[in-house]
Each structure stands twice: as C-alpha cells, then as structure tokens.
Specification:
Shape: globular
Strand content: 25-35%
Oligomer: single chain
CATH topology: Deoxyribonuclease I, Chain A
Number of domains: 1
Strand order of the largest sheet: 3-4-2-1-14-13
Mean pLDDT: 97
Number of strands: 14
CATH superfamily: Endonuclease/exonuclease/phosphatase
Low-confidence stretches: none
CATH architecture: 4-Layer Sandwich
DNA sequence: ATGTCACGCTGGGCGTGA
C-alpha cells in the first residue's frame, strides 16, 4: 500500500497541485489535512475524474481532514472525530478501513503558545489519540498519518534557538505525547527507513525558509502491523510549478507499506 | 527582516490563524 500524508493548506487553493501529486505517485490512499472546506464544497466530482473517491470530516473555514482512496479499493467503517478528543467541534480526525488497513488522517491542534489555553488542549488531543490508537492497533494493521504539529526530536528542527522557552512544537510534554504512541508499538515510518539526518516536511512561507533549509519534521506517519519499505518527501510539491500554482507550506510525505 | 498565505466578510482592506 502506498500512502501519502499532506497538509494542503486549503484544498480549494491547492486544487491544481493535488492531481499533480496523485499522478506523480499513484497512491492508494491520501491523508489530507487543512482542507478548509465545508462538506458541501468538497470536490468529490473533480476527484472522481482523476480516479479517487473521498471521505471527509469538514468544518468550513478552518481545519478539515479527509481520506482520498484510489478507485477499486474498499472503504468501510468511517469514524469522524477523535473519540474522547477535547475539540469535537473542530474537524481534526477521520479514520476508515481502506483495503483492510485502518487508516487515520489527523490534524493535531497547533497549541500556539505554551502559556495559552490552546496548549493543554493540544496535550489532551495527543492523549486521546494514544487511547484511540491503542484500540485500533489491537484490532489489526493501523496507520495514523498527518500534521502532528510536534517535531519529535531536536534534529527534526532546523535551529532549536528559533524555539525559545514557551514555544510549542518542541516541548517535552508534546514529545511525550508522540513517545506514548511509539510505546504502543507503532513505528515512525520515516525514521524507520531514514535513521539519521534531517527530513523536514514543513517550511514557513516567510523569509525564504524553504530555500534556506529552515524546516521542521512535523508531518508524520506511525504504523503498526505493517512493514515500511520506503518513505520520501515530495519537495517538488513545495516549489512553485510551471503554471504558477502556489504550493502548500507542507510537502507530501510518501510512504510505502508492506503487509 | 514577523519578509507569506488563505480564509470570511464584503466588495478591498482588515482580523484571524498558521
């Protein structure tokens, strides 16, 4: 199974780039985040034209997650919203069984600042996710992929000095939230095939961050009950294309899994 | 260089979020 996770930063604004990525990689399933669409605006018909169906959890202006599934693969048992999660009004989680694998697309809350009211909610979300994944992993092959808004280790950050005390994405409690997922037996797919070195997936739009290599590894795929054969970051999708269609600030993570 | 995007509301600049 080939799986992609990609925070598109508006599916509507990113539309010309989405079929490009589908054609380039021919994934079986795509976990999207930040679709930023109402359910009735989701581009089901346009996706059908390029051979994909979708299930989505949509909110409107903010957030929004989806699973795109290649035609011919069975999709069952869709669950929208993270059971026990702290922000049920926000569209940050969708899971379904795709071709026999339980797949979840997640958009973890940003957290903003450690001193803000949003930070403890982010930690609560990570804890609820761990509890849900414990249930799913006990049931069969499981993948959770998305924008975790946490860099697992210092080497997943271009410069730790850019994240002084009070900054989110790098704190010990956030990283403990990821470690608790690993403690379930789930594997960080990218690190499984790239033990050393940096492998960023996000670069700020501002300041020429992409060109300067100022990135973070915050788009992650955790896997249980499946082997990982290859993981790549599609940096082409982070660049401007010939038609001038703008990129997301996140690059797609392309993950090949073996049963 | 906090230097960019994308959204809604409104009809183009501001507030919000990342």
């Amino acid at each position: 199974m080939r799986l992609i996770t990609w925070n598109v930063n508006s599916l509507k604004a990113r539309w010309p780039r989405v079929p490009e990525v589908l054609e380039a990689h021919a994934p079986d399933v795509v976990c999207l985040q930040e679709t930023k669409l109402a359910a009735d605006a989701f581009p089901h018909a346009a996706l059908a034209e390029v051979g994909y169906s979708a299930v989505e959890a949509s909110e409107g202006r903010w957030n929004g997650v989806a699973l795109l599934v290649r035609d011919g693969l069975e999709v069952t048992d869709v669950v929208r919203d993270l059971p026990g999660g702290p922000v049920p009004e926000e569209a940050r989680w969708i899971e379904a069984t795709v071709d026999g694998v339980r797949v979840a697309s997640v958009y973890v809350p940003n957290g903003r600042e450690v001193v803000s009211e949003w930070y403890p909610r982010k930690l609560d979300f990570l804890a609820a996710m761990r509890d849900r994944l414990a249930v799913l992993c006990a049931d069969g092959p499981t993948v959770v992929a998305g924008d975790f808004n946490v860099a697992p280790e210092d080497r997943d950050v271009w410069d730790m000095a850019a994240f002084p005390e009070g900054s989110t994405h790098v704190t010990a409690p956030e990283r403990a939230g990821l470690a608790a997922i690993v403690a379930l037996g789930m594997v960080d797919a990218q690190r499984a095939v790239l033990p050393d070195g940096e492998a960023f997936t996000w670069w700020d739009y501002r300041g020429g961050a992409f060109h300067r290599g100022h990135g973070l590894r915050i788009d992650l795929a955790y896997v249980a009950g499946l082997g990982v054969t290859s993981v790549t970051v599609d940096r082409t999708a982070r660049r401007n294309n010939e038609a001038g269609d703008k990129p997301s600030d996140h690059a797609p993570l392309v993950v090949d899994l073996a049963r």
